[in-house]
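Researcher: Going back to the complex we discussed earlier. I've cleaned up the inputs and rechecked each line, so this should be the final set. Can you rerun the prediction on the complete assembly and write out the structure?
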Amino acid sequence: MNNKTAAVQMRNITKTFGSVVANDKVNLDIYKGEVLALLGENGSGKTTMMNMLSGIYFPDEGEIFINGQPTVISSPKDAFDHGIGMIHQHFKLVDVLTAAENIVLGLKEEGRLNIEAVAAKVKKICDAYGFEVDPYQKIYNMSVSQKQTVEIVKVLYRGADILILDEPTAVLTPQETDKLFAVLRNMRNDGKAVVIITHKLHEVEDISDRVVILNHGKFVGDLITAQTSAQEMTNMMVGRAVELNINRPEPVDPRPRVEVQGLTVRSSDGILKLDDVTFTANSGEILGIAGISGCGQKELLEAIAGLQRTESGTIRYIRDDGTAENLVGKDPLEIASMGVALSFVPEDRLGMGLVGNMDLTDNMMLRSFREGPSFLINRKKPRLLAEKVVKDLEVNTPGVSTPIRRLSGGNVQKVLLGREIASSPTVLLTAYAVRGLDINSSYTIYDLLTRQKQAGVAVIYVGEDLDVLLELCDRILVLCGGKVSGLVDGKTAEKHQIGMMMTKLGGEAANE
Amino acid sequence: MFDLVSFIPRAVAQSIPLLYGATGEILTEKSGNLNLGIPGIMYVGGICGVIGAFLHEQAVPADEMTALSAIGIPMLASLIGSLLMGLLYCFLTVTLRANQNVTGLAITTFGVGFGNFFGGSLIKLTDSDVPSIALSATSNYFRQALPFADGLGWFGRIFLSYGFLAYLAIIIALASAYVLKHTRVGLHLRAVGENPATADAAGINIAKYKYMATCLGSMIAGLGGLYYVMDYACGVWSNDAFGDRGWLAIALVIFTIWKPNMAIPASILFGGLYILYLYLPTGMNLSIKELYKMLPYIVTIIVLVITSMRNKRENQPPESLGLPYFREER
Amino acid sequence: MSNNCQPNGHTRVNNQPLFHITKRKALPWYYTWGIRGAAIVAALLTCAAVTSLLTGENPLEVFQTIGYGAFGTTRKTWILLQNLAILLCISLAVTPAFKMRFWNIGAEGQVLIGGLATAACMILLGDKVPNAVLIATMVISSIAAGAVWGGIPAFFKAKWNTNETLFTLMMNYVATQLVAFFVIVWEVPKGAGKIGIINQDTMAGWLPQIGDYKYLLNILIVAMLTVAMYVYLNYTKHGYEITVVGESERTARYVGIKVDKVIIRTMLLSGAVCGIAGLLLVGGTDHTITTTIAGGRGFTAVMVSWLAQFNPIVMVLTSFLLVFLDRGAGEISTVFALNHSFGDILTGIILFFIIGSEFFVNYQLNFRKNTGKEGKANV
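Model: Rerun complete. Updated structure for the full complex:
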């Protein structure tokens, strides 16, 4: 390690947002000619840390040294001037501009703007690394992986020597990931410093030379990848050894509850999101849904919940007495008025499931506020429910009249799930229910879901962690590019088998 | 018979304040600032020009005035006045991140009040012994048409009969269109208005661009007020005479779907609609004229509705229009 | 920026920024209102200074004159209360829309249309139906007219997401021209360009006067509206829906609130209350209609509502502040023979200070000390 030159040294970096401490006195070194993996769970402060290096945030405390010199990075421009380029998880591209215009954005080159010259230089970079970009294409006409390519070309165009990539593979197919990693290795061999932010262990092992692990905003370890093991990294990442041991009782008297037949959904801009999806969710069992993110999971759940317009296919809800209703074309209110008790924990908790500026009480009545004939609203029952949820699920909050945005992610999720379960659903849809949650909160959630299953609810669990899916779910439906790629038994399936299914159709999808 | 040769020059004269206002507001909105203070700023631009010219005329007898000072002093005063208003708007909305709609309306309240107050009290405040503000000497310099305009018949009347501020308005509009479309600064400005977080990440100084575009836009709009009082109104300030032209300029911005070069024909069209009632057949009911004055607003509403229905990306308002930007928002 | 940076910029030692800005944690309410109070005091001092500068009067006397203009005589006090009532009424009208994040800056037009409907009833039905029927018709038609005027932009917003700020703004001028048209149609005498007092002899359609107090009815109606709006926004299902839609449309859809319906319904209400303001102006106060009857209050109301953080009770205070200043400035103009727009200048100054002070409620400046360690200063 000593024979390498430190490109960046971050010392005692602290950053807080309101009352949330995102980074707490973190030290971090980045060396030239090395791929560094920044590993940590969601919400461990990885991205915040790198945002301070790229000038998006400014640290509350601490110092940054670049090539040994103390440096203040107070804007992204400063970061560029120091050769730091970051590729964000959410692409920083202007939709109505072309690729070339986005690439030169912010550059202080001499002379007048010459888009042709830019396009030629872009082409050169693309040829060198095997990318494909049409410099004149507008961003809003591009696919996700095309946009990422534009982002990477943008950073290369600026001749960055410190490259930071924030979870770059989340939106890529395996082939695209391999291609990306090959490029990153080339850059390392050129003597550039590459930082990849991730929470996927296999990627750390695949690409990185060194790994720095953060947990809850704190620095926990700095290891040579070749000298460590997945077990050790996991332990450091979560703080203690993980034994998943999720309790999975046998389903009792499973019966078909929701039958999805040939469901096809297009997004508003005409892209096929779900393609002829067919499956059945049974009462008294947890049906897992696996897939690379953005493969139609969101559309599937929203279609069942009556929030997504469908193109064709049926969604039938089957009652205990065998009668069935088609849910397609109904909105959430109509579904509820048919006596279908359907609960939905969406992925975007504060943007969809809850209202951040409202307190717990008001959030509890989001679904039930219409009850009763009165024109006035009755806050008594919601307040009691809020107090019950706080007590039963051990929500950490100053009180039920605290705005929900002040709570931490885990507590927000408990409130949301608590409300959805309180309506005694027969179908419970959850999207990434444990994303961003700590281990203890996650287990509380697993436990809640399992209890719902035992109570005869048909639970649909969209997840991203295959280990959890394999230990929690009775059956797992694998989606790939909007199609059903397979349906496996949670008790017998192998992890690599699901991984294969997730990517099997991916090749086709990527070349659209 | 409809007299085009008399109609067009009048429509053009009517269109110039709108063109200044619209060009200024387009630049401003391209940076993501919806400046509803433009109507007030145009008043301020006008009255500051008046104050400058008034003091100048009081100090220098008409036959000793030179073109340079007669035009330069009011113009400088006008530019400074509207610049200060632009700075105030930016300070509140960009630096202090205040709500743009509220700030803009406050600027308009203040600006219109400022204009009417000084317009109505200037004589009293300076203890002058003139009956009303009529800056005919200064105005004559502003209204100076091209020397050979008279000799060219209808061609001269339609194209060459205007004061220099009218040509300046067209030049500024064309220059703005060029800058927005073909230069680095224009590219950066568009990025700032569309997606400031992205522009920021690309190393563009958001605050600087917002300040520059908004202040420049305010100064351009202020010239519209100056043109109105010095050229169109022959140097006579009367309170509220400028009317709702400022709002009409904001309507024009929508009508031209944020393109300054389109603002040139569009403002002439609006100017024409604005005075169309003057060309109604005689004997027609006077009240109908008031309905004709509604036309520019109705047309704008129709354009607004159609663009929102067609929902084409290029024709939409800048995406971050009206929203404050705070880098550490989370 | 320092100039000693090397070409590659890598070893540049930057000068530290003087301060940087972060979002504040929640402040206790007294702190928040302390900041706003300080802003108002600073604004009043600035107003006094500006007035002194223009009139030569000493600042203390300026306040005296302002106070006299507002409360000097019983009549002045009643006028102040009347103006307060109308401004408050329009502010109440725009508030539900703002809570829904619908920027209704078309209150001016909605008031005008409400007033026009009232005037139409008074002129056309004045001598044809009993007074009680006439007044009932006026009430219904003014409310309906205001509601329609507010509902049109809402319909397009709900259907095609048409920009409501610009749409409602344009609707103001369509309303103005419509009023201008009818003023000429109904002008008395022909060619006067104005309508004059409607039904001066019969007083048909004039809202009843309570005792000797000309403005008391208006004030009572607005007081009731204030309480009603407070309850509507905070304690009814509609009010709850408005809050949810304003906070997040996605959440609203998720819980089955029909966002389109709420937008249209709320704007119908907003327009309807503006219509009532028009009714009070035409039927209860002026007994005539002109294009300037709203007098810019549709725009001032936007600021009143926003300054009060959309709380109807606090709006009583904010509208009082603005009306008080306006009346006081009017007095100063009269005493010193200045133009009456002086009030707008003072209003502008007050607004700038309060708008600016919100920054210090929501954000804090963190100053960097020379040692590189950070000190926090609450400014």
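Model: Worth noting: Chain A has three domains: 6-238, 253-341+424-432+457-512, 347-423.
Researcher: Good, that matches what I expected from the previous run.
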